[in-house]
Amino acid sequence: xEHTSYIELSRKALQNNLDYLRETVGDSxxxxxxxxxxxxxxxIDTFVPLAHExxxxxxxxxxxxxxxxxxxxxxxxxxxxxxxxxxxxxxxxAIENEIHFFVFEMDRLKAAVKAARKLKKKxxxxxxLETGMNxxxxxxxxWEGLRSFLRxxxxxxxxxxxxxxxxxxxxxxxxxxxxxxIKRFREGVKFMGNGNVQADRLHTACSAxxxxxxxSRMDMVRIGILQYGFWPSMETFITTVQPQDVEHEDxxxxxxxxxxxxxxxxxxxxxxxxxxxTSFLATSDLKVASVPVGYSHGFSRSLSNxxxxxxxxxxxxxIGIVNMNVMMLDVSQLDHVEKGDExxxxxxxxxxxxSVSSFSDYSDQLNYELLTRLPHDIPRxxxx
Length: 384
Hints:
Blueprint: E1 5-10, H1 11-25, E2 30-34, H2 36-40, H3 44-53, E3 58-63, H4 64-73, E4 79-85, H5 91-96, E5 100-103, H6 106-119, E6 123-128, H7 143-152, E7 157-163, H8 175-194, E8 201-205, H9 207-212, E9 220-223, H10 234-241, E10 256-261, E11 264-268, E12 286-291, E13 308-311, E14 314-319, E15 327-330, E16 342-349, E17 352-354, H11 356-363, H12 367-372, E18 380-383
Parallel strand pairs: 1-18, 2-3, 2-9, 3-4, 4-5, 5-6, 6-7, 7-8, 8-9
Antiparallel strand pairs: 1-10, 10-16, 11-12, 12-15, 13-14, 13-16, 14-15, 16-17
């Protein structure tokens, strides 16, 4: 059955981005490909096998459900790291399948030891240290007890990583805070090492930190938004690209395109309102195209009378209120437009393009938010 819209993922764009990331972080640094939020809206079922085909061998998820999806589509042939939620009851599954997971409080750590002892198999844990974000992680006052516990139970635990997370590395306003976090993390690593507690890997850097704070790369980086062809912020793009390229050419390529087709076309007389309410009044005779995509499909209601799309190689405006399942476009300037014509919501058409960043300019949403709101049931296809 036909869907009202579909998503395309570009193999060529992803290969470009992975090459850029590898060149940036160096061959000695492992890249963990972050696929939380349904691979940032790209779809775990589609994106992960593609990334795996192109050489990705380490994936990070937020929770156990996502880890299960990655494990399924890769046939268990990759390393998977759960950075957030896993129930204690799910730890046996994780340990049995050699799924790595963050540990940031004692209850999970004790449960991991219990599960590992039962299975007679070591748990692959990554201890998160609190360094200043104040979200999750072992605070400094607990480090001594933590170190003793790890040492006493090392027969059941493999300390696969020591890690932390930075509080806004994408913004210069957080520069001092992040620098202090790096310093505190180093203190934590030294403290653990002084008690003969050594991790296989040190990892702290997300996309923004891996670009802006080279010293944060360490043994592994956790790359999310960059691999999909988006910058964590415009500030990150400017400070990274401008010193290297006077033409400011973006080294990243957008992997995702989102497309639909025109459902109907009608003429609207001057003085008539378009859509619900009175938010849009036709000040001249218009030609209006209806597209079967609305806020239930991830096209935000905040884009009402502000959003843009591409039709027949030209940028057109969203007019009226974005409905649950339908939006309207002003296609008056197009000479020929008809039912079935392609509508590009994200991506390129001819020489024109619409980016998620463009959406964000209109809706005050982050790249992350718009992408992860794309529903799971939109079909996703791989293109060259």
